[in-house]
């Protein structure tokens, strides 16, 4: 397995672990305070690395960081809004697949042409990501005409969330090795500002207390590690391949929930793991 593919899978590990920790913390403290603390932590970590190894970023390189931050924050906001409508089984998989599709299209537009085996792997990955992210509808979801309207709204939120995360991946993929980690710090800082603006607009708490800060630090370090691995993977292989493999992060989240919380995997999630495992093998072989 190439180093690029390994790093892309490490990105999925970082993102998935961050989602698991953030989700666990959100059961105890306001979610926006965790997100804000996490983004500040990620920014501080990348600024520290930049001081040690500053790189030579141009203004164009630095501009990709804020764009990635806007995409990340927008993706999270629409995902949370869709989930709040009670249609997790619609919005989560739509968002996850959308995040993978946009970078693949961007890569094709940029001249990337994966070999046949890699194409088969990418094709298998899409239903795998969908199945991993999908959860069984529960009794709180609307029924009848209300279900139809709420479902359409959740689907749109899922698409917009996926677009935001796709923009994050595409923007991160444009940061060259020579730029160092300063663009990643700007990514995190921008995300923090957008989070504050959104939380203020909807009157949600974003100032982290001691407990929220602890959850945020853990989430931030894991999340920014995922982004760092993503950028490094992109230096070694195609954007579409890196983005699809990084989008396997739901596998990490559900496996951690199964291992640490005793949550049971549904049949669809088990099948999704099989699809994603096969996709990794085919992409690696290609």
UniProtKB/TrEMBL annotation:
Keyword Transmembrane helix among record annotations: yes
Transmembrane segments annotated in the record for this chain: 34-52, 59-80, 86-108, 115-133, 153-172, 184-206, 212-231, 238-261
UniProt keyword list: Membrane, Transmembrane, Transmembrane helix
Domain EamA: 3-133, 159-283
UniProt key word Transmembrane helix: yes
Cellular component terms (Gene Ontology): membrane
InterPro entries: EamA_dom, EmrE-like
Similarity comment: Belongs to the EamA transporter family.
Protein name: Uncharacterized membrane protein
Annotated source species: Micromonospora citrea
